[in-house]
Write a structure and sequence with these properties.
The structure is a single chain. This protein has 498 residues and is α/β, with parallel strands linked by helices. 19% of the residues lie in helices and 26% in strands. It is built from 6 helices and 33 strands. The strands form 8 sheets. It has an 11-stranded mixed β-sheet with strand order 10-11-12-14-16-18-20-22-24-26-28, with no helix packed on it. A 6-stranded parallel β-sheet has the order 13-15-17-19-21-23, with no helix packed on it. Strands 3-4-5-6 form a 4-stranded mixed β-sheet. α3 packs across α5 and α5 runs antiparallel to α6. The radius of gyration is 53 Å and the shape is rod-shaped. It starts with a helix and ends with a helix. 20% of the residues are buried. InterPro entries: S74_ICA, Serralysin-like_metalloprot_C. Keywords: Signal. This is Tail fiber domain-containing protein.
């Protein structure tokens, strides 16, 4: 009965209030005139209809503004607009629906991440922004045995490109990450880039050169404007590049390029490549296996070639042995090729010289008759006459020490005047003598001398026969024949000596 009295009293008060103001008041005798229903209570609230999502969805033709409280799934208040149910988000709970609007103030994540997923299964990996504006794509600690947490960054169809603008010397001297590990890292203070991994402090600030880059594993680049790529390379020189594995460029070097494995460079503007090769000197080159250019302006190529500390040398060696070919003097050219040498002076490779393999000690001139044309016989007697008119003797080149550098031979001008024209074309020039032409002139002259000697020998034999015939048959006296014979013998002997 008591409850009935209270209900009746409430209704009377509400009716009285409605009659006076046009508003309904519950718990108040003076409801606000702007409200159709004004409820006033202490320790109590308004409890609207509660139901699960299936019951809510089953309401037929819900009018606009109808509101219920859903008890399962996305719990909370739902209201209907145009026949569609909309959820009223609770900003204090995860899974906020920010809606489609324009922010009027900064969005403060409050130490939380911006993640994807659904309300029922929100993601755990997302963007985190600290108070300084540092953005991190952070994930929960990787569980043991998990090798793909699906975290990553994809930029698709970025037609405007990708830009990270920084200024050298600004920011922290400590890289974003130090110590061992795999990472992709840009350090603004040094203007340096790293991609790959290290097992120690190779990518710490103490080992990071300005405007340097390292790609691969365990590559250290402490020099400025330098680059290393591959495995376990150590670049301490400036303006240097190192590619391959286990190579090194000394800190006193500048502008060196090293390619290969276990190669070393020390000095300025050097080139080293291959296996176990090294340079110790400025402006030098060592390419191949165990080649050493340990002097300035030295070049060592091939296998086991060494400048041997001699500057200005060029040493090139084959692969026949493990003993180094070493330079023996400054500014020297040394070569070892057990298979011989070939030098061609035309594109068809039909003209040139060669040095025989395995012990050849003189140049061989290509003289194959099948490779020659327009052959013309020479008059040996004319050659002898021309040789007789040449200035033959000893001499030395200007600037050479006459006590040790004297030579025998003709003058190029005389040789060219005597043999430079054969009626078909020009042979040589008036400042040099081709060794092949020199040998050819000598052979023609020798052939002419031989023929003269044969003729004199025949005449000498005839005279001897005449001398041995009976005096009655002999025309001249024996004394006259004897004199003539002696003259012939003298002449033959002189020709033979020449």
């Amino acid at each position: 009965m008591k409850h009935l009295y209270l209900l009746a009293t409430g209704l009377l008060l509400a009716t009285a209030a409605a009659a006076q103001t046009g508003s309904v008041g519950i718990g108040t005798a003076s409801p606000a005139p702007q409200a159709a229903l004004d409820i006033s209570a202490t320790g109590k609230g308004l409890l609207i209809p509660r139901m699960d999502s299936a019951t809510r969805a089953g309401i037929a033709a819900p009018p606009d503004g109808l509101m219920v409280f859903q008890t399962d799934g996305r719990k909370g208040f739902w209201y209907c607009v145009g026949g569609a149910w909309l959820y009223i988000p609770d900003k204090t709970r995860s899974g906020d629906n920010l809606g489609n609007h324009t922010a009027t103030r900064n969005l403060n994540l409050g130490g939380n991440r911006l993640v994807g997923g659904t309300a029922a299964a929100p993601g755990t990996v997302g963007l985190r922004i600290d108070g300084n504006g540092l953005v991190r794509l952070a994930a929960a600690p990787r569980p043991f045995g998990v090798y793909d947490n699906a975290a990553g960054l994809y930029l698709t169809d970025v037609d405007a490109g990708f830009l990270v603008r920084t200024s050298i010397g600004y920011g922290s001297t400590t890289p974003p990450a130090s110590g061992l590990g795999d990472r992709l890292m840009w350090t603004p203070y040094y203007g340096s880039f790293r991609a790959g991994g290290v097992d120690g402090n190779q990518w710490d600030g103490a080992n990071m050169g300005f405007y340097s880059a390292a790609f691969g594993y365990n590559n250290l680049v402490a020099g400025i404007y330098s680059l290393a790529a591959g495995y376990n390379n150590n670049v301490r020189g400036n303006y240097a590049t190192c590619l391959g594995r286990d190579n090194a460029i000394d800190q006193l070097s500048s502008g060196a390029l090293v390619i290969g494995r276990n190669c070393r460079a020390k000095g300025n503007y050097n080139l080293v490549g291959g296996l176990n090769s090294k340079v110790q000197g400025n402006y030098s080159v060592a390419l191949g296996e165990r080649c050493t250019a340990n002097a300035a302006n030295a070049i060592a190529l091939g296998r086991f070639a060494s400048a041997n500390g001699r500057s200005g040398t060029f040493v090139i060696a084959d692969a026949t042995g493990n003993d180094s070919l070493r330079a023996s003097a400054n500014n020297q050219f040394s070569a070892r090729y057990a298979g011989g040498y070939r030098l061609f002076t035309n594109a068809a490779m039909t003209v040139g010289v060669s040095l025989a393999a395995n012990g050849g000690n003189a140049w061989q001139v290509i003289s194959d008759s099948t490779k020659k044309e327009r052959r013309r016989l020479a008059d040996g007697n004319q050659f002898l006459a021309r040789i007789d008119g040449m200035r033959l003797g000893s001499w030395n080149y200007k600037g050479q020490d006459p006590s040790t550098m004297r030579h025998y031979g003709p003058m190029a001008q005389d040789f060219y005047a005597a043999f430079g024209h054969d009626g078909v074309g020009t042979i040589g020039n008036d400042t040099t003598i081709n060794q092949s032409d020199f040998d050819g002139v000598n052979l023609i002259a020798i052939q002419a001398l031989y023929r003269r000697v044969r003729a004199l020998e025949a005449e000498n034999a005839a005279l001897r026969r005449q001398q041995s015939a009976p005096a009655a048959q002999a025309g001249p006296s024996a004394a006259a024949l004897e004199v003539r014979l002696r003259r012939l013998e003298a002449l033959v002997g002189g020709q033979a000596q020449r």
